[in-house]
Amino acid sequence: MELCIIGSGYVGLVSGACFAEIGHTVVCVDNDQRKVDMLQRGEIPIYEPGLEDLVHRNVAAKRLRFTNSIADGVDHSQVVFIAVPTPPQADGSVDLTYIERVAREIAGVLKPGQYRVVVDKSTVPVKTGEKVDATIRRYNPAAEFDVVSNPEFLREGCAVPDLMSPDRIVIGSASQKATDLMKRLYEPFQSPILVTDVNSAELIKHAANSFLSLKISYINAVSAICEASGADVEMVADGIGTDKRIGRNFLNAGLGYGGSCFPKDVKAFIAIAEELGTPFHLLKEVERINSHQLDRYLKKVREALWVLRDKRIAVWGLTFKPDTDDVRNSVAIDLINRLVAEGAIVTAYDPKGMEKAVEYKLIPPSVKLVSSPLEAVEGAEALLLATEWKEFARQDFAAVKASMHTPLVFDGRNHFNPKTMREMGFVYYGVGRP
Ligand code: UDX
User: Fold this and answer.
1) Using one digit for the tens of pLDDT, what is the confidence trace for 347-368?
2) What residue's CA is closest to ligand 1, atom 20?
3) CA-to-CA distance for 118 and 109, rounded, in angstroms?
């Protein structure tokens, strides 16, 4: 099939490359000419394992191309995906400016007799599909189209495998014709397809991300009880997670959730519920627990080091999770800023996130970024692990200890084995475990 994807960010670009990989012909549209130029030169603006190969292979096979023209994309495609950003506004509600603009632009280029399925892949509040539909009709009363909601559940760092074999594909549609086209499009993925109405599909995305955030906050609240009682949160998570009704995934206690989805989507769901007159108080508590995790962690660091001013502190990790270069809404970045605000001298290392942290000016210039984990700990009075990159567990810890001024380790992601660390002579602090 011939598809067009408007917006070449994480969701748009990875979806485009995966659709091309399974045999569809895809035009990716972006209004950022710099990004389009980069992609046309074969450069990938984001780091995502497996993506570069996928893009190169499918461009070479002429199944994938990039343009800045919506008219070009829509003209050549039966299905038009909208995958533009839906950033949060100051009050937590979703800014739908980009979606509205794209809806108008699509309306402007739809030709009479040219049926199109307009699919919203961006995370949007329930009832957005109705507004997209009304907008296109208002600006082009003769247009022949259906609006479908098809939320994306990919995780950064494993976006390609998530997209190639999703747990489920949600298609929210009121039209049989559009549903049939969408089913044909997704058939090669051989994943379960759930067909719903448009509003339910939109709601599924916010409800899923909020539930996963709730799971993380639940285990983080349990981690505080473990610390107060001497229990081990890892054992508790295993114990409750082996119950199939609960599941072990997303029960890892740590510094809390970050990234460009969970914080934004929980806020948005709170705002949506409020607007609909059905306030979701539980999610406010989820947020409170999440931000409290960093406070609790810093309290532990202060209790051990007493005053942080002029202390040399090494931080391992800048990204909001491993296997990505994404540093947006990263708890690691918040941690560094809080340390610097208290006068600590911070040296940090991250395998992929340093460039973007500097480019977006997310950390103070006084933070020294170095080229290896070992270099970061030189002379440090404490090592703080903020992101659980695999390479951190593979370090030569005898060398790490020898290099540090005092061997204190604050493992913000329960990434190291406490027993091994203590046997090596480190003073080890985890989250929710003795
Ligand atoms: C998330 C959803 O998983 C995905 O389905 C949706 O499409 C986008 O949002 P992503 O933000 O890429 O994906 O990362 P994810 O792996 O879900 O992690 C989010 C945050 O939660 C990270 O900061 C991570 O460190 C944290 N987390 C995750 C925990 O603290 N504990 C856990 O057990 C799992």
Assistant:
1) 999 999 999 999 999 999 999 9
2) 257
3) 13
